[in-house]
Write a structure and sequence with these properties.
single chain, 2 domains, 9 helices, transmembrane, membrane, transmembrane helix
Length: 274
């Protein structure tokens, strides 16, 4: 390899990132508008009936918090499936030729995709902020009680984690396991977007469902003979074990995704990018 292309270069990285931005801009705009519409629908449908005068304040706040939790679940869904759009520009022969011709190393190109993915996820979170601003402005214009700003609650992750209390397991264990699962689930879609040229989202989703069903079956079988007194300890151990396993699998998927990307060929199998 030419020495000038052997080290990371911010200029080449910037050129590649701008190319990805131009290629993916329209898709990102559509996704962000869809996220905004989903957030708005959830917020308005859940809070409008609790915003009339005379509704107890504690009931209003509880209704808003439930709506925000639903928006949080929607955001986690976006985080997972965002991996589907990680490498949409390598599906055809011409697209792969174009990517190969970019004046950057495989690492710089891959990191450019990662940076663009991070921007998408930040944008999806900001869409909730915009949805909450629209909710407050709309309710204020209609003379309804807009209760409170939902933005601080949405970004208060510790408060969400504090509500996760399953089988006596402290919230930190459950939250860590869920975060690791998100990393793994997203990385699985990223790997699928690079490995599969067709139906990648459908195939990866099917694999995901099968793995989750198998995991639930294994957990149910392993805990069926556990004494009631040991459930809490067993569940907490399982949560931390799941966190470690999902984190390692997620890292493995990202490493494999990069290796596949760096070895990408112009002429590949129609289904598999090998």
């Amino acid at each position: 390899m030419d020495q000038s292309m052997s080290n990371f270069n911010y200029s080449r990285f910037g050129i590649t990132f701008r190319w990805i931005e131009r290629y993916s801009r329209n898709t990102m705009i559509r996704v962000l508008f869809l996220a905004l519409a989903v957030y708005l629908f959830i917020l308005l449908m859940n809070t409008v009936t609790a915003s009339y005068k005379g509704i107890p304040a504690d009931m209003q706040q509880l209704t808003l918090i439930r709506a925000i939790r639903s928006c949080g679940m929607a955001y986690f869904f976006w985080v997972i499936i965002s991996g589907t759009w990680f490498c949409q520009n390598i599906k055809t022969k011409q697209q792969r030729i174009t990517v190969k011709m970019l004046p950057a190393t495989a690492l710089e190109k891959f990191l450019s995709h990662m940076a663009w993915l991070a921007i998408q996820l930040i944008g999806m979170a900001l869409m909730f902020c915009l949805a909450d601003v629209i909710r407050v402005a709309l309710f204020a214009a209609l003379g309804l009680d807009w209760i409170q700003w939902g933005i601080p609650v949405f970004f208060n992750i510790s408060r969400v984690a504090g509500d996760m209390y399953i089988l006596g397991v402290k919230s930190a264990a459950v939250y860590a396991a869920c975060a690791a699962w998100l990393l793994w689930a997203q990385s699985l879609y990223v790997l699928g977007s690079i490995l599969l040229n067709r139906y990648n989202s459908v195939i990866v989703s099917a694999i995901h469902v099968i793995l989750i069903v198998a995991l639930v079956w294994i957990v149910s079988k392993s805990s069926s003979g556990t004494a009631t007194a040991d459930i809490t300890m067993t569940a907490e151990t399982a949560a931390y074990t799941a966190m470690t396993a999902f984190a390692l699998l997620g890292i493995f998927n990202w490493v494999m995704a990069y290796r596949l990307y760096s070895r990408m060929q112009v002429i590949n199998n129609k289904l598999i990018n090998l």
